[in-house]
Design a protein that fits this description.
The chain is α+β, with helices and mostly antiparallel strands. The chain has four helices and six strands. A six-stranded mixed β-sheet has the order 4-3-2-1-6-5, with no helix packed on it. Strand 2 and strand 3 form a beta hairpin.
């Protein structure tokens, strides 16, 4: 019984570690974005917002159309995030993490989290959205099927977001700048060889 309790407590701590790590990286906002004023009070002249003139080519106010309900056969992205992606044999590959949307508004790729245990060691990969088969066996029961193998999943490259790519580029640039500013240190026990 003590072993069961100890194992359960350990799994609970491990699963909370990822949640704590994610919440610790979120930016903290100290000041409110909107400052409240007394009703009826005049706004100081230096804080009056500028009048924004709409740019040419952008939709004008009143041009939007609204929909009252979801259409039959349409899926909501909120129902896809976290859903398992399966092989044709019904084996789970991973879970949907995000959908990538192109500049024209079309969904271009499906990003999924694969591997790992309790969030540790997991990585993200992506496939073209058209490669995933969407099956509705009965209303409300959606399945995502991807024809692939475990070997192909293992060999798939990690999916990098634009933010991750920029961070890597900045880290490489900073490392190069630090290397250029530092004088080269020579170990007397193994001096550099001179080519002649």
């Amino acid at each position: 019984m003590k072993t069961l309790l100890a194992t359960t407590a350990t799994l609970a701590v491990l699963s909370m570690g990822a949640a704590w790590a994610q919440s610790a990286t979120e930016p903290q906002v100290d000041e409110p974005l909107i400052e409240e004023t007394t009703p009826g009070a005049a706004m100081p002249a230096d804080q009056v917002p500028e009048t924004v003139v709409p740019q040419a080519g952008l939709p004008q106010a009143g041009a939007a159309s609204f929909l009252a309900e979801q259409q039959e056969g349409h899926w909501l992205t909120s129902n896809l995030i976290g859903r398992n992606v399966l092989t044709p044999d019904g084996d789970s590959i991973g879970q949907v993490a995000a959908l990538e949307i192109g500049p024209e508004g079309q969904v271009t790729s499906l990003v999924m989290t694969v591997g790992g245990f309790l969030g540790l060691g997991a990585r993200q990969i992506a496939v073209p959205f058209e490669a995933v088969e969407h099956i509705t066996s009965e209303p409300g029961d959606h399945q995502l099927i991807l024809a692939t193998t475990a070997e192909e999943i293992e060999a798939a490259p990690d999916f990098k977001t634009l933010v991750q790519k920029r961070q890597e580029e900045e880290a490489i640039r900073a490392q190069r700048e630090m290397g250029a500013d530092r004088p080269m240190t020579v170990d007397p026990a193994s001096p550099p060889s001179t080519a002649q």
